[in-house]
Design goal:
alpha+beta, seven-stranded mixed β-sheet, 34 strands, binds magnesium ion, binds guanosine-5'-triphosphate
Length: 638
């Protein structure tokens, strides 16, 4: 089996990831002609919607052979609305290419991606693309990368004729000082004329994610792409082999008959046809290899396989001994209620959305009475969901206006308790809880041996679910809950030794009592509703500043920095998530259509004015009387 490199291509929107993928496929001999995004003829943008809009929405895998290795390339979307697609891919990469446009330079999204790649220590090459386009400024963009991303960059090519179709990128010797910083012996060896040492140092340090080699080129003319391909083959690490079965599901799609197809990267060990995985038997197995999907009976460590037969599989599932992936990016800060245009489609819409949510980490559903709310990163995602529902399920929908997803933060310390056998506690359980601000956690101030562990589990689970809806209906976050009292009645028997249910505590007593105690404690502690605030970067023609600044202020935005460079002004600051869309709609009219606005979740801040509320579910401990009528009341059965 040839060595394997699982490679992600990441960048801000329109940097040229999909075009570069086509070039690499062409170079590897998989396609005769590189496809074009603008003609809708690329391999990885295969969805009708992607082709129509010319943007990538879903991550896609293609594989090709390069210098004796198999490269499984994952082309990812760059639009910030689809960041969750990138998220799922990060856990399966051996290396990455971070693309930066030689015209637009480092963008907010580039910084977010770079920070995450660094934190995960994923070896990364940087490709400065579009050197052929008018306005290309490779040297300035290199300086920007060093300034805004990391100084640990090593340019490995030089550009001639930037800004014209004749632009070329010629390989050059790697820069010594940056490499010498991580390798004392290097400088001495170089002085002795042992240049080969530099090449090895570059490879070692790239593989350890200490430095990023920077390549230059054009996905359209093909300049520099061969050099990048050499870099991928030589500088990035190979997937490790062997070990016990460990894999991760990073993509789920539906096959032609509606069956689930799971994309699994095997991190270690192997998965075989007819293996039992996630409670089902693998009935079909294909592996990405050399430009195609190949039917096989086994997928080994390093390989990416499509598995069939897993009826319950979801993105993020672990195969064998793998851990579930952690979350790398901020969760969606917006949501909107979806309603079917025809009321008779309500049930079908519910089924369709549930199905989409299973395959798509972007779609998180919440029920609001008979309505369904979907969490969102932005407006483009709404269009994609609407188009998918229309095209794949024949359901026309409308969205209510997007609203921010707020949180409730605990402001003080609050305690409450309910003692067993003491009115008005109708349950056979003693629970005391204290809440206070802090990093969310559940702690015990009572002996672990004081109750059967099942009762503690019941309390802990009830705490977690109760915190989903605070006093105003929003999730309560940043809250330490400490159990201060516990108590139960053990299995009781009457004189005749028959088990008497009405005298013995059960898990249900704890499950039903805990929410009541917790909301009392929360009431005493007090909570404030906080809304999501985005950090933005806005580029506009400098002569439109006078028109834009008042509009920004009206949208409750604050410009923290304002830099005018020639004819362009760049503003950075913060704006409430709820106002981003309105601002985005106003900008074209104020800036002759030239504004570029990027925004992403930054922090939560207390809402000014009256707190917005969100409906709580029907079984609601905040309304004690109704709650007690709804849950199984022990006292009434006695
Ligand atoms: N001149 C020039 N245009 C390029 C180059 N690379 C990409 N483009 C163009 O830039 C646009 C975006 O290219 P894509 O390949 O779709 O970019 P992407 O990064 O995949 O975009 P998303 O997946 O939507 O984030 C298309 O119109 C391409 O033709 C390049 O090197 N030079
Ligand atoms: Mg793309």
């Amino acid at each position: 089996m040839p060595p394997i490199v699982n490679l992600g291509i990441l960048a801000h929107v329109d940097a040229g990831k999909t075009s570069l993928t086509e070039r690499l496929l062409h170079l590897a001999g998989v396609v005769d002609q590189p496809g074009r995004v603008d003609d809708g003829s690329t391999h990885t943008d295969s969805l009708a919607l992607e082709r129509r809009r010319g943007i990538t929405i879903k991550s896609a895998v293609v594989s090709f052979a390069l210098a004796g290795a198999t490269v499984n390339l994952i082309d990812t979307p760059g639009h910030p609305d689809f960041i969750a697609e990138v998220e799922r891919v990060l856990g399966v990469l051996d290396g990455a290419v971070l693309v930066v446009s030689a015209v637009e330079g480092v963008q907010a999204q580039t910084r977010i991606l770079h920070r995450t790649l660094t934190r995960l220590r994923i070896p990364t090459l940087i490709m400065v693309n579009k050197v052929d386009r008018r306005g290309a400024r490779p040297a300035a963009v290199l300086a920007e990368i060093a300034e805004k991303l990391t100084p640990a960059v090593v340019p490995v090519a030089a550009v001639d004729g930037a800004g014209s179709r004749e632009a070329t990128a010629t390989p050059c010797e790697p820069d010594l000082p940056v490499l010498a910083e991580h390798d004392d012996a290097l400088l001495a060896a170089y002085v002795d004329g042992r240049a080969a040492h530099t090449a090895r140092a570059l490879r070692d340090q790239t593989r350890r994610a200490l430095v990023h080699p920077v390549f230059f080129g054009s996905a359209i003319t093909g300049a520099g792409v061969g050099h990048l391909a050499d870099g991928i083959a030589e500088l990035l690490p190979r997937a490790p082999r062997g070990g016990p079965q460990r894999g991760t599901v990073f993509k789920v799609e539906r096959g032609p008959a509606g069956e689930r197809v799971a994309y699994v990267r095997m991190l270690a060990g192997a998965v075989r046809l007819r293996d039992k995985v996630l409670g089902d038997v693998v009935t079909g197995l294909d592996v990405f290899a050399d430009g195609a999907l190949v039917r096989r009976s086994v997928a080994r460590a390093g390989e990416i396989a499509q598995l069939r037969g897993l009826t319950r599989v979801r993105i993020g599932d672990a195969v064998g001994q793998a851990d579930r992936p952690e979350q790398h990016f901020a969760p969606p800060s917006l949501e909107s209620v979806v309603t079917p245009c025809r009321t008779e489609d309500r049930a079908a819409l519910f089924t369709a959305l549930t199905e989409l949510a299973e395959q798509d980490p972007l779609i998180d559903l919440r029920h609001e009475g008979t309505d369904i709310a979907v969490s969102l990163y932005g407006e483009v995602q709404k269009e994609v969901i609407a188009a998918t529902l229309a095209e794949e399920y024949g359901i026309a929908v409308t969205f209510r206006p997007t609203t921010p997803v707020c949180i409730e933060r605990v402001t003080g310390v609050g305690e409450a308790e309910a003692l067993i056998g003491v009115a008005p506690n109708p349950f056979l359980a003693t629970v005391g809880l204290r809440v206070e601000p802090g990093e969310s956690a559940f702690r015990l101030e009572v002996e672990l041996g004081s109750m059967p562990s099942a009762f503690f589990t019941a309390v802990r689970e009830a705490v977690t679910s109760t915190l989903r809806h605070g006093r105003y209906g929003w999730p309560v976050t940043g809250c330490v809950v400490t159990m201060t009292r516990s108590g139960y009645w053990p299995r009781q028997s009457h004189a005749h030794a028959t088990f008497d249910k009405s005298m013995s505590s059960t898990g249900r007593d704890f499950r039903h009592l805990t929410p009541l105690v917790l909301v009392s404690a929360l009431r005493r502690a007090g909570t404030t509703v906080c809304e999501p605030v985005h950090a933005f970067r806005l580029e506009i023609p400098a002569d439109t500043l006078d028109a834009v600044l008042p509009a920004l202020a009206r949208a409750d935005g604050v410009a923290q920095e304002q830099v005018v460079r020639g004819a362009l002004a760049e503003l950075t600051g913060t704006v409430p998530a709820a106002r981003v869309h309105g601002l985005r709609r106003l900008l074209p009219g104020l800036t002759r259509g030239e504004a570029v606005l990027e925004s992403r979740f930054d922090h939560h801040r207390p809402v000014r004015g009256p707190a917005p509320t969100r409906p709580r579910p029907s079984i609601d401990p905040w309304r004690r009387k109704e709650y007690l009528l709804q849950v199984d009341r022990r006292v009434g059965t006695r």
